[in-house]
Automatic annotation (TrEMBL):
Cited Gene3D superfamilies: Tetratricopeptide repeat domain (1.25.40.10)
Signal peptide from the UniProt entry: 1-35
Keyword annotations of the record: Signal
Protein name stated in the entry: Uncharacterized protein
Taxonomic source organism: Dyella mobilis
Phylogenetic classification of the source organism: Bacteria, Pseudomonadati, Pseudomonadota, Gammaproteobacteria, Lysobacterales
Keyword Signal in annotation: yes
Amino acid sequence: MKKSSLFRHLATARQPMTLALVAALGALAAGLVMAQSEVATPPRQPATAQADQLFWQTFHSSDYAHIQASIEASTAAYLRDPNDAMTAAHVGWLHMWRVAESDRLQQRPASITDDIVLARKYFQKAVDLAPDDARFRGFLASAMLAEARVDRDAALRQQGADVMRKAVSDWPAFNLFTAGYVASGLPASSDGFKQALEQQWQNLELCGHVTLDRHGANLDRFAQNVAKATANSRDARACLNSVKAPHNEEGFFLNMGDMLTKSGDWQTALKVYAAAKQSPDYAQWPYREVLEQRLRDAKANVVAFNAEVPPGQKPTSPMMIGSSYACMACHQH
């Protein structure tokens, strides 16, 4: 998979259960490049490598129906070697994926929240084993915030926010997105949502080493700078498309466009949505029609994205964060 970048080519409170699911999405969505570990690891066991292979096969093929088989394989690998940070993280990611895209289910069972608890456990283990990996800390924070919303636990919510701030500080290019995506399901008028949207702008500015107009007037300046700013840097893994996140860029702009639409600024959302179409990988993106529909319906979606959804019902026009492609928009091959 080529790593050519869209950035280089760009001339570019609801019910507690809902909030819990929204928070969980932050760990497995657009912009998450789950490639190499940030720390050196010892040789891994053959069975662990097989579990890894099944993880990526299941994940990249969007095989949601067979998540449990991959959980079994990765958990068995973890039991053989509970000191392998990446295996622990894989178990956590699988549990988060199941809850994150539970919109695929005809009816969400109440017990889906157990996946959040398990994800937190395994991400905590990964953080303990690889404390220098800022990605793991961002995912842990997402799980903590999700669990806090399930339990209405203010103390845990504060702990999760503290962990997220540290993760953002340690790797801004990666975790500004994670932090913002987690909060994108909050009411558009809330301070949390406004901060989350600002974090998306900050993420773009960091990737492009440029100050951006908040109405998208100078996205061309961003395009001019981003290639040389990130192509050979650590931040390239967070800013560009990659083998592990083949449509990282398209998914980022889909989500950011959704957030701008929800904020009421559908005119700027159109510019951000259109930026995704400049990706050289756009023609292979499985969610092209989703974005094309967003471009057609942006103005109407201001109301749709802010609508209260009755308990037990699904939104007719969900934002990316509440959709069946909350993770796959970036990660599906």
